[in-house]
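Repro:
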Amino acid sequence: MRRDKAGGIHRIQQPALEQVDLGRDYDVLRVLGEGCFAQVLLARHRSSATTVVLKAVHVELARLSDFHREFHYSYHLSPHPAILSSYSVAFRTERSFVFAQEYAPLGDLAGNVRAGGLGEAPSKHVARQLSSALDFVHSQGLVHGDLKLENVLVFAADMSRVKLCDFGSTRRAGSLVPRTATGCAWQPFLPPEVCETVCGERYPCRTAADCWQLGIALHVCLTGCPPWRCADAVRDPRYATFLRWQGRRTAHVPRPFLGYGPRLLRLLRRLLEPREEKRAPVVEVAKYLGDVWLPGRPPPASDPPGQHRQSHHDQRVQATRVWEWLLSCDDKAESSVEGV
């Protein structure tokens, strides 16, 4: 299946997909990840001896038009160096719609962030590449819509090469999209304008949402945990504390942001601006990369020599469990420590 990358990115074609016997043409090496709607498989194409990742979307749970849209955006955006490469290979099996992508040997960012965070230099690498990737997406009139650590794949242990992936939620800027149910582990990434929307209702998809999610992702890279459970001051006292500081009603830096340098605080204040129309665009991140972000904090210890990395699947399971534990902590106990 071939497509012209120079074609209009908003003209989503829906050609018929060739029916393929997956077991005949591919050797499935292992399952890299599995969700409600899709499996991600590491496979070797027998005739070409090429190793690829196959994203297999379950036929019963997805519309063909949604599959075509994700494949289309994944393929047309992949020339950017910080976006995962998608190949001109798409087909269907008896149970799935499938397209092929490159393999990230070190898994996703969630499986690489340890307690205490990555440290300043690796976090800056992540910030530089993700802001560039999102700026490219936005320049095409699109919104990624689902930036989280699981959707950033790692190709170098020092984070000097990471790539944005998963364009299943990508839409044209300004499109109306429904608010869907979200697992507790991903709630911290939702911007306040989405948190305020009732599940099932529609809201306008804007690039400012990606900017917010980038700010949350950077905080998690630097600390190892999210700053709050959700961006709702009524439900989350930690976010309420942040709003008071953000609105200059207190000079006390919220506890999750203690230890940050003044320039990093300014950057996060701009990315995590509650008013979406006032939120800084992702290109602003480049202005802060030369500043000291974590003054006086030593870099995190590296893995001991000879220690083997966990598998991609094990990394994701461990990261999800840690996040769920962190987000299940008693908010009242946290707020009492902060004096709110």
